[in-house]
Structure formats: C-alpha cells, structure tokens
Amino acid sequence: TTAGHVDRAAEDAAYAAYGDAEETRTAVERELAVTRESWTAARAEARTGPDGEAAATDPTAEELASEVQELAGLHAEAHALAGQAHAAREALARAEREHEERVAAQREAERRVAARTSRRETLDRRLAELDEEIARGRGAFATVAEHAARLERRVELLVDASGTVSAAELAARRLKEADDRLADAAYQEGFATPDEAAAALLVVRERRGLQQRLDAWQAEEAVVADRLAEPGTAAAAALPPADPAAAEAAHAAAERALREADSALAAARERVAGLVGLSRQAAAEVRRLGPLREEYERVARLAALTAGTSAENERRMRLESYVLAARLEQVAAAATARLLRMSSGRYTLVHSDARSGSKRAGLGLHVVDAWTGNERDTATLSGGETFFASLALALGLADVVTDEAGGVRLDTLFIDEGFGSLDEQTLDEVLDVLDSLRERDRSVGIVSHVGDLRRRIPAQLEVVKARHGSAVRLRTGGDALSG
Q1: Which residues on neighbouring strands pair with residue 365, listed in sequence order?
Q2: Residues 35, 71: contact at Cβ < 8 Å?
Q3: What's the pLDDT band for 341 if we cut at 50, 70, 90?
Q4: What CA–CA distances, in Å, run from 303 to 168, 175, 307, 370?
Q5: Which end of the chain is more exposed for a tag (fewer CB within 10 A), N or C?
Q6: Does the domain made of 319-410+421-437 have the CATH classification 3.40.1190.20?
Q7: What's the rounded Cα separation, in Å, for the pair 146 and 136?
Q8: First-to-last CA distance in the chain?
C-alpha cells in the first residue's frame, strides 16, 4: 500500500485490534473493581478484626507497599490498554476517512475511463471511415496517385467519346430529319416509300455510294455504343467533370519542379566534382605533411622535455634549470664558506633538485642545520637567519662570477636593509665578514636605519631631510663614530 493510505486489510486489522483492546480493557476494569473491593474489605477487616472488633495491629509497611505496587501495576496496564483502544479508535476513523476518499477517487477514475473509452471508440470509428475512404480512392491500385492517373486517362477517353457521341447524335438527328423529308417528298410524289423513289431516281453507282456512307455511320454508331457500354466509361461518366485548368497548373508546377531538380542536380554534380578534387588534393597534402608531422612530434616531444612539461621529465626541470643547477651548486659551496662564519658554524647551504608540491624542481636551496643534523627548506629560517643566508649567497655568487669571468672582480657591493633583524652577536659576525671583504680592497656599502651600525662604519653618507629637499652629508673618521 502507498504511504499515508489504509487498505482493506489494515482496516480489518484496526477493527480487530479495537475489539480486542475494548474486551481487554473491560476485563481489566472488572478485575480492578474486584481488586479494589477486596482491598477495601481487607482494610476494613484489618481495622476491625474478623469479629467486628478493632484489630490488634495494623498491616505492616511491606504489605501495604506490596499491595500498592500490585495496584499500580494493574492501573498502568489498564491505562496502557485504554491508550491502545484510543489509538485503535483513531486508526479506525482514519481508515474510514481513507476508505471514503478512495471510493470517491475510484468513482472519478471510472467516470474518466468511461469518457476516454467513448472518445477512443469515436476516434476508432473515424479512423475506420478514413481508411475506407482511402481504400475507395485507391481502388485496386497500389496508391491513390496511381488511381488518380488512371482516372485522368479515362476522363480523356470519355471526353473524346463524348465528342464522338455528340457528333453521332447530331448526325443521327440530321439523318432522321433527312429521312422524314425524304419520306414526305416521296409520298408527295406518289411513292409508298423513299426506297421506291430512290429506285426510280438513283442510278446504281449513286445508290452504292449512299449505302457505303450509311454503313459507315452505322459502324461508327456501334463503336460509340460499345464504348459507352464499358463499365469504366459508365463510372467515369458518373464522376464530376475534369478540371483542365487545375491539371494544367499541376503540370506546369511539376515541370518547374523538374527544372529546379535538374538545376540542383547539375549544381550538386559540379560541387561533387569540386569536392572530389579537393579531397584528392587534401589526401596529397596529408601524405606530404606526414614527414613534417613526425618531425613536429619529435621536436614537440623534445621541447616538452626541455621545458619540463613532459610526463617523461619526472622532476619537471627545465633545461636551463638543469644547466644552472651546476652553477648553483658552486654558488652554494662558495656561500657556505661565509655562512658558517655568520652562523657560528651552524648552517650550510646545499643545492636541492627535489620537487615541492606542483612546483618545478632544479633550482632549490636547503640548509643543513649542524645543531640538529637535519636538512630543511630555507623558508624555515627566521628573519635574521634569512638575511645573513641571503648575504652569504650574494657574496658566494660574486665569487663565482669573478672566477667565471676570467679574473674580472666585483669591487663594489651594496647591501640594503636587513640588519635590524639580527641580534648583537650575529650582527658582529656579519660585520666581521664584511670587514674581511674591505681588507681585500673591496668596497661594501650598507643602506640601513639601524643606529648601532654607526659605531662600526668609519665612512658614512647621511641623507638629511630639509624643508626644500634632501641633502647628502659625508661623515668620516671620528665624526661618523660619534654622530
């Protein structure tokens, strides 16, 4: 059954459950009443004694609790049965309402089915009538168009036969009129019949000619009569007269359609010839492009491999990254020499070609922490550590460039900011490294706002802000250290 609906079986079950609940409730109520009477009598007997005297002792608390528990159980059971009876009444009422709704829906469905059946029967009768009309129109022919063409041919024959019949009838009337005039003339001349008059007047040759003409007329009349007696001619005569104008219009339309079809066929053939030529040309071009396609695929594969986008390049490393990786190893080695001094021997820079997520590999740098023995990404360094690691890397790059350039030196180096993130010990170590560069005839410029650097830098260019612009002030020696 559908959710929310009650079928006949559920309705019967609800009736049965309701009846059982009512019987059980009635029995329990009777038992409860008897129990209450017994309990009342027992309490009265307990108070007065069996002889009507007061009892020497009251019932114990355990006995009263047991009786109360037993009565409470009976009361709960009766209450549950009463609830079941109420639920059964609600189910019964719901089943009755659902039954009435389903009966009304069934009646409405029966009415709709009857209306649809009547409509379908009407349509079936109309369809049968149309089939009969088509069959009558088609007759013994395969199609209605073939039957119509046959009827048009018969109409043409009937038109010809009608003209012949009209001519024959006119000739017969004229012959009869001539016979009547001939009989009158013969009678007036004293002859009993026209033949007697003809015998008296006509010569044999003229009589023979007239007889031949008469025989011809009679033969033509017989032919026309036979044609009119044919079943097809009679049926065609009963049809409405043909419409020559409509037939001519249809014929003209058919001729136009034929000319258009011929023109379209010629255009299509010309187009097919052109497409065949293009197809052959395209096939030749495809064959010619075969080696070029193979060369393109080879070059594209090589380009993807060098660009790091090919699946064969597991590290997604570009060719230039692969070439620069060797130089980066040299830079990392040169930078490590100064980084060890700046970090008190803790950090070492190493080249890494490992991939990180979806990034390409090849030009990565890691630091080896001597305190923990772990290799980790440079992104894990603190701000100050990142600064002196970058400084060491820049100095290492300068050393590698000097070596690769055939002795060409980088004499001047500028460092912008970053010193404020260093503690005092690290700042001293970094400045010691920079001082060692100056000792080898290199100029190192520091751009910074850190005041503690003034005590360590002997020559300074101070930018002084003023109302009308900024000015540069040179400090050397004692001025720089005291300023």
Answers
A1: 351
A2: yes
A3: confident
A4: 102, 112, 6, 41
A5: N
A6: no
A7: 13
A8: 100
